[in-house]
Design a protein that fits this description.
It is built from three helices and nine strands; from the N terminus they run αββαββββββαβ. The protein is mostly beta strands and 138 residues long. The two termini are 26 Å apart.
């Protein structure tokens, strides 16, 4: 299914929580889970807002290489990438983009997960590289 068609049809996402653990605190983020190709392609496209302490977790069964783009996304976001052991190794801020060409955001290393939240939320929560991510499904 094409991403635009999926968005128009209201592609459903399962829900869960991302628990972000730093040396001094834990932060719980309510997340939508993107596991299928269609869910990953749609992501947060066409959304107008993202709730506080909410986000989207993109999950893979094995490490992948790739990048993210913000095409058709109007919410400024931050994205954290983690590897097989759940440790965040890169956090990037991403700018909205309504039409191609759009910037790409590449962690420059293989990853097994990525978490998108409102831009600046990781900084406000005290989450930096080295923090751990645990995904819990509802």
């Amino acid at each position: 299914m094409l991403p635009v068609a999926a968005a128009l049809l209201g592609l459903a996402f399962p829900h869960g929580h991302a628990i972000l653990r730093t040396p001094t605190r834990s932060v719980s983020v309510k997340v939508e889970l993107a596991r299928t190709l269609a869910q990953k392609e749609q992501g947060l496209m066409y959304r107008r807002a993202l709730a506080h302490h909410a986000g989207m977790a993109f999950l893979w069964d094995a490490p992948v290489r790739g990048s993210f783009t913000m095409k058709n996304t109007s919410i400024p976001l931050s994205i954290a990438f983690w590897g097989r052991r759940g440790r965040i190794f890169r956090i990037l801020d991403m700018a909205p983009c309504r039409a191609a060409p759009c910037a790409t955001y590449d962690p420059r290393a293989p990853f097994t997960g990525a978490l998108e939240v409102n831009r600046g939320a990781f900084r406000r929560w005290g989450v930096r590289t080295g923090a751990r991510v645990e995904i819990r499904t509802d």
